[in-house]
Amino acid sequence: MTSVAAPSRPGTGRAVRAAKSHGQEIVILIVLVVLFIAVGAHSPRFLSGNNLTSIFSGKAYIAVAAIGMSLVIIAGQIDVSVGALIGVLATIAGSLATHGFPIWVAWTVPVVVGIMVDAFVGVLVAYARIPSIVVTLGMLSILRGGLISVTSGAWISNLPPAFLLAQSRWFGVPVPVYFMVVLTIVMAAWMNYSATGRSIYAVGGNGEAARAAGLRVEPTIVFVFAVNGLFAGIAADLFGTQLQVIQSTVPPNLELTVITAAVIGGVSILGGTGTVIGSTLAAILFGTIESAFVFVGISAYWRGAVIGLLILATVLADMARRRRFL
Amino acid sequence: MSARTLLRHETILLALVIVAFAVLAQRSDRFFTPENLLNQGRLMTEVGLLSLTMTFVIVTGGIDLSVGSIVGMVAICVGVLWHDVGLPLWLAMGLGLAIGILAGLFNGFVITRFRVPPLIATLATLALYRGLAEGISQARSVRNYPDWFAALGQGEGWGVPNQLWILLVAVVIAAFALGLTTFGRTAYAVGSNEVAARFSGLRVDRVKLTIYAASGFAAALAAIILVSRVSTTRSDMGTGYELTAITAVVLGGTSIFGGRGTIIGTVLGLTLMQALGSGLSLAGIKGDGTIVVIGAILILTVLLANIFRRDGG
């Protein structure tokens, strides 16, 4: 990264440094708090337990997928096929569940398939040296076309009640929230403290320097994609069990939502910086905005434009923060 | 930078196109007929226009993910300006083109002035422009366009669909601009090494602005042709076009890292995709199976090109 950290004055220690390196997360947190207070003052029901639960639970699968995407982007790569993959994996899960396989098989197989598909993508990127945007563009076509040809877009219904993971609750809290919170914390710690986590930052920051320093660049990239597949699998389990039916099509623009969550969350598209906490906060922000629209009474049709403006503002603020203006 | 590598990629592609046509003509006698080929040409015009300017964008090392959304936004604006505001249709069309150019200029402005990476800048405007389209349309569609307007997308001149003439003119202009002008050489220079181009005194930012504006213009033109062809306007028009256009361009041998690529390659890539789409569906493969083939071919061509390039290196 070319961001020039201003020479810190003595006495402005840790807090300032933390604020600088987590600027984006703090910005999103502030926006979230302001939204909650403002919309809550306008209509108190916004802050009711039910509504908060639906905000946090409904976007959990996006947060989970965005964790994997954050790793991919931090490693200097991109994955535009993740939405299609989640659609395919959710359909696999649903088909297995309705065909009488044990529930745990229906939940596990998509995760394993996700890992395998994305590990293959990683191999093509790392060893065959095809740019990740090209591989995943191709993969997007293959997955999307394959899904519709196989299912003809038929919905999967009659899902066994025990299969509906995302609808169950532990101690009154929806299961997806646990997944979102635990995975975010685990991955944030892992990225920050483990050797592998640090090497992902190094590979994304400067691949040649990482290689010169003795890091194994290619296996790291394959590994990062495999992890992305793992998270796509978990996201698919959460996504596919939200409703009583699975639509067996690719959710439109899901890949862009996931990438956007990662980027708004402060993962630099140039690679090498960012955290998974930011992307989870961004996913929650999407849910909050959507819900706020309903409560404030703005037509839902303007939601896309507002989110677009928000992304643009965040990106510009991020660039300003990095002092990359000419 | 070698003419040899370019030649190689395009030769592979041309061979693939010929093989595809031969195999598809074998499998269905309805494929290699003038009616089918011309109709396919009609269908590929909208994405074709986008992929021409996308070639320029990618040659400079950029990307424009917002074109599909610009198509939707311009389509809605033309419909609303004509139907709801009551402007004459020709004026609404003109304003639509202006909106497209402005949208493209805005992309270019964010990219050149604020140094936002093109992938992110256009990802943001993808959401923004599509959101504006949805907000303006409020999920209503506009229909009942006059007959003269339908001629643009449904009529033909000298036996060839009207919009195919437009595409043909656009191809010639694009090929000339990229291959034979200072502007085109500048685009290659920017894509190969932007810093060097800047220090060589090239007007890097101006060229980029022009190219993103052109991309917006192409999207607006595609929108008008699309509205005329299907004689209705909806806010989700053009969704996913950006990925199809990028696929055609990359399939055509343009390096996603910039600095390398030709219009001929893009046209070949586009032709291959459209031929496969049409031929395979005629041969009884379900419509969406063809998308799978296109995806596989995209990966395979780049893989092949990589292998050949390293051997020849």
What's the short story on this structure?
The complex is a heterodimer of chains A (326) and B (313). Helix content of chain A is 69%, strand content 1%.
Describe the protein in words.
- The complex is a heterodimer of chains A (326) and B (313).
- Chain A is mostly helical and 326 residues long.
- Chain A is built from 14 helices and 2 strands.
- A two-stranded antiparallel ribbon of chain A has the order 1-2.
- The N terminus of chain A is likely disordered.
- Chain B has 313 residues and is an all-alpha fold.
- In chain B, 76% of the residues lie in helices and 1% in strands.
- Chain B is built from 13 helices and 2 strands; from the N terminus they run H-H-H-H-H-H-E-E-H-H-H-H-H-H-H.
- Chain B has a two-stranded antiparallel ribbon.
- In chain B, a hairpin with a 2-residue loop joins strand 1 and strand 2.
- In chain B, helix 3 packs across helix 10.
- Chain B is globular, with a radius of gyration of 19 Å.
- Chains A and B meet through helix 7, helix 12 and helix 14 of A and helix 5, helix 11 and helix 13 of B.
Keywords:
heterodimer, A: 326 residues, mainly alpha, two-stranded antiparallel sheet, 14 helices, 69% helix, 1% strand, disordered N terminus, B: 313 residues, 13 helices
Please tally the helical runs of chain A, counting DSSP H or I stretches of 4 or more residues.
14
Class from secondary-structure proportions of chain B: mainly alpha
The biggest chain-chain interface is: A-B, 50 and 48 residues
Q: Let me know the average pLDDT of chain A.
A: 83
Give the beta-strand count of chain B.
2
- Order of neighbouring strands in the sheet with most strands of chain A: 1-2
For the report, how would you describe the main beta sheet of chain A?
Answer: 2 strands, antiparallel
